[in-house]
Amino acid sequence: MRVKRRERPASDGSPLSQQPWGSRAAMDKFRTLFQHFQSSSESVMNGICLLLAMVTVKLYSSFDFNCPCLARYNALYGLGLLFTPPIALFLCGLLANRQSVVMVEEWRRPAGHRRKDPGIIRYMCSSVLQRALAAPLVWILLALLDGKCFMCAFSSSVDPEKFLDFANMTPSQVQLFLAKVPCKEDELVRNSPARKAVSRYLRCLSQAIGWSLTLLLIVLAFLARCLRPCFDQTIFLQRRYWSNYVDLEQKLFDETCCEHARDFAHRCVLHFFASMQSEMRARGLRRDSACRGPEAPEKPEPPEGLDGGSGKAHLRAVSSQEQVDHLLSTWYSSKPPLDLTASSGLWGGGLSHRAPTVVPGTRASPHTDV
Known about the structure:
The structure is a single chain. The protein has helices at about 15-20, 20-40, 40-60, 75-95, 100-110, 120-130, 135-145, 150-155, 170-180, 195-225, 235-285, 315, 320-335; strands at about 115, 370. With about 375 residues, the chain is mainly alpha-helical. Strands 1-2 form a two-stranded parallel sheet.
């Protein structure tokens, strides 16, 4: 009795079929995660915020701190290193967050047919600031817990009366000695108990401020998370919805503009070559009319109208530069009201001489809030 051997399914030779199941599952999970980040702008902003915080930690850990140990420049260098990189990281966070540009555009645009809601702008501003302040706060906390910047900035400001080792020094010698405290390899303060005492005092003070600030931020975040459900969530949900709407509306408008620009350029190029071909054909008929016999009549060119079933009727209706400029200026100055049940006569007729222009989402009442 022969036992039949189970044959393995033949591989189609594709890279996916040759991959093991573990790597394929990992690729599926990565694809799902990438699609999630691509579809959710909030998740993208949180990811960028986390990335900036990680870059901040890496930058600070690889930075070589050297205090000038001069009475006039210690405070300037220490405070500059404590606050200048956070300002740069804050600006980078604002640049990386797309909602900051959308918020400024929404704040600066004319009211038009859609009344602006200041609450939405405040909500977007708070969301942008929360994400942009993450990396600067990480830098400041790391600098305070490390203590080098604080020691360099405030070593010359220490009260010498708190330490007994400065009793036999003149005021000028005390100031010079305090300025050399951050530089432990300097000959003036090397192996000096007074330098160790001042250094330990400043480092402990810096760490106390750093831990206090960390605890304060954690308490504020905890209170905000715990107390928010105690208030009415209706306004919060409305502002969150309309802030997401403004962002998505701008993205869809940019995509529609790109689609119309591509279609308009394609039609202009085709029209140019069609006109050149007809002109060359007309010149050839006049020149070779004596040598050639009668030719078949030319097929009429399809009219430059709307493509049936193409789904681009709202794009092809706008067919000149003046119409495009008028459409863009109308979009910026008035913005379509958010009422799809009202009549479309709000815009005062179409923008095209071939077909009436119907911009999607423009039929609305002028009293709708955003």
